[in-house]
Specification:
Blueprint (H helix, E strand, L loop, with lengths): L1 E5 L3 E8 L10 E9 L1 H11 L4 E8 H13 L3 E7 L5 E8 L2 E5 L8 H10 L8 E5 L10 H8 L6 E5 L2 H5 L8 E2 L3 H8 L6 H13 L4 E5 L5 E4 L5 E4 L13 H16 L2 H16 L7 H12 L1
Parallel strand pairs: 1-4, 1-8, 2-6, 4-5, 8-9, 9-10, 10-11
Antiparallel strand pairs: 2-3, 6-7, 11-12, 12-13
Helix pairs in contact: 1-8, 8-9, 9-10
Length: about 300
């Protein structure tokens, strides 16, 4: 089972107006509502690839109930903790001429008692399961929360995946996470440098591996991605054509899901990376997240 945690899930309300003008009454041509949050994105793409997954996180109010309903609609199991204050987020995204203007809400405050409930839920995770920790954290949650989670489960043989930034990521390295996936910008921020090639990305990936990470993927947008695996082998892959990209939200999450599913299918790190890139590209070419059909189509392009 692959578990994902989303601390601050949302409903993404996507509006496609025509000739949007600030300060005026605008009419929308199309509207969509999707569940949002990095862990939720990972679970949905995993389910598309026939992987057993459960989404954990915090929900609140009528918005939270709708988030759970929407996630379950994609066949994902849920085990959310319901907070008795405020409402979960509704993020508004305005799309026009392939440009996105977003207003992201802050979400509810998470009290310590709810974090304790989360730790209790983590006890159900068994040896050989995978736990994905991704995204930033909301009000009430310290920047060492991922470290605390790793501490709580360190005596089990659980594969921990961390897809986050700064201290949230760095504080987990001493627990030897199975996979981390900084993107190029995040890697540059960690080391205070500018990366100009895949080879340079691999050099800094080695530094993160020396601090404890087993496998390191660096996603590099239009420059593709690199992987340094736990056996010391490195892999470089070019990006697929994304000239028709309509969405970048969830691409990194899709890469994580594709990698995990790909390794489960092929037991091969290079093929897992290929699946990750195929999934990420599929997401950039759709309004929401990658479908199995589009992922397989992209994978064939990579292989042949």
């Amino acid at each position: 089972m692959i578990y994902t945690i989303t601390f601050n899930p949302a409903l993404d309300y996507i509006i496609k107006p025509q000739h949007f003008k600030i300060g005026k009454i605008n009419k929308s041509n199309e509207e969509y509502i999707f569940p949002g949050g990095k862990g939720i994105n990972v679970s949905i793409v995993l389910k598309e690839l026939s992987q057993d997954t459960t989404a954990i996180g915090f929900i609140s109010g009528f918005v939270g109930k709708e988030i759970e309903k929407q996630v379950q609609k994609y066949g994902v199991k849920t085990d959310f903790i319901e907070i008795q204050n405020d409402n979960s987020r509704i993020n508004v995204k305005i799309l026009e001429d392939n440009q996105e203007t977003a207003i992201n809400a802050k979400g509810p405050y998470i009290e310590q008692k709810y974090l304790e409930l989360l730790y209790e839920k983590l006890e159900i995770i068994e040896n050989e399961d995978t736990l994905v920790l991704s995204g930033s954290v909301p009000n009430g949650v310290d920047s060492n929360i991922y470290e605390k989670i790793c501490q709580n489960i360190k005596n089990k043989n659980i594969k921990v995946v961390v897809d986050s930034t700064g201290e949230l990521l760095l504080k987990t390295l001493k627990y030897k996470p199975y996979l981390i996936k900084p993107n190029q910008q995040e890697l540059e921020e960690i080391f205070g440098i500018k990366i100009t090639s895949q080879d340079e990305a691999l050099e800094y990936a080695k530094q993160l591996q020396s601090k404890g990470a087993q496998n390191v993927i660096v996603s590099m947008g239009s420059d593709g991605a690199v992987l340094l695996d736990e056996n010391g082998y490195s892999y470089k892959i070019k990006a697929l054509n994304t000239k028709n990209a309509v969405n970048t939200v969830g691409a990194g999450d899709s890469m994580v899901a594709g990698f995990l599913a790909g390794h489960e299918m092929f037991n091969n790190y290079e093929k897992a990376l290929q699946m990750g890139v195929a999934a990420a590209t599929a997401t950039t070419n759709t309004l929401f997240l990658a479908t199995k059909e589009k992922i397989e189509e992209n994978l064939n392009k990579i292989l042949f």
